[in-house]
Amino acid sequence: MKSGNKMGRERTGSITKINGKFYARVTFIDSEGKRHDLRRRAVDRKDARKIIKDVLHDLETRGETSVEVSRITFSDLASVYKETRMKQAEYRDDHKICGMRSLSSANSHLKALTDYFGPTPLQSITVGQIEKYKQHRLSVPTKRSKDRSITSVNRELEFLRSMLRFAVCEGWIDKSPFDKASTPLISKSDEAKRTRTLSWEEEKRLLEVCGPDLQSLIITALDTGMRLGEILSLSWSSVDFENKQITIQALNTKTLTKRIVPISSRLENELRILLKDPGPDEKVFGNISHIYGIWKTACREAQIEGLRFHDLRATFATRLIEAGMAIEQVAKITGHSQLSTLYEHYLRNTSETIAKAATLLNRMNDRGGDSHH
Length: 373
Hints:
- This protein is an alpha+beta fold.
- It has 16 helices and 9 strands.
- The chain has helices at 45-62, 65-70, 74-84, 103-117, 127-139, 150-169, 177-180, 200-209, 212-224, 228-232, 265-274, 291-301, 311-322, 327-334, 339-346, 351-371; strands at 2-4, 10-18, 21-29, 35-42, 90-92, 95-98, 239-240, 245-248, 259-262.
- The chain is elongated and about 85 Å long.
- The termini are far apart.
């Protein structure tokens, strides 16, 4: 395969196979008479021919500077992305203006991706390679020797998608592989869905065995639907006993949107016990540590299995909807801008729900049977 530019300098492309692997090779001489030999890994001969065609097209349309871009590796992207985007979040007037909230997770994702793609030229990363990465990560156990979940791998792929979009904006690649895939590379439907809620009987057992600090946390989560991070960052200035409500400040929420949650009677009792002449910015739960440890101990002593602290948030939403509150109103309290998210992740069937459904069916069936007599 040959091509020539206006100056008559020849550019050639060829396909080689080394150790069973295909490579696309393009050779050309630049304006200063220097010879360049580019080689890229290909899936098969068809893919190699496409790579050669694309490289020759880039040389014709974008000039020899496209060669420099073609040498940019994933490690180069990782370095620039980390310096540019991966900074501690900064806020102004309760709004994030730059940086990332979960920097530790971002660093973990970046390391896993760089370990795999590091020396790979950006322009050589294909849909197939990303699929292989996905399978590779699913086969690697976690640090605790547990199976890695599809959900955690999807978070890594979302991070990779963000990095490749950044590369497109920088002009290092023309299009992200995520936009080329015929089927989505990130499948949320494959993620394991949580179905657990805390029953009333389990709640009674749990509250009986836990200490006062954990009891206050559990009741706060069950009666407000707040996330653990929101609870731990709660200050007394946000607690309004008179109107029986708590204002969760925007910078403390996952969605960076301020919202208001209720104070039930039993929660008010817990909060007043904790109230000891605090300053307005003092944290309500400032002295609690080792939360996950005491949570696991309490669940074990109460003989409760498979329950995470975050399931209390789903319990809150499910209970309100079962009690007749409109799902749109529940979404306002839980901070879900999309009802589909609330439906999919937080509205869960309970034994009470199933029993209620059976009762309703029996009533309808009885009425239907009577109408036929």
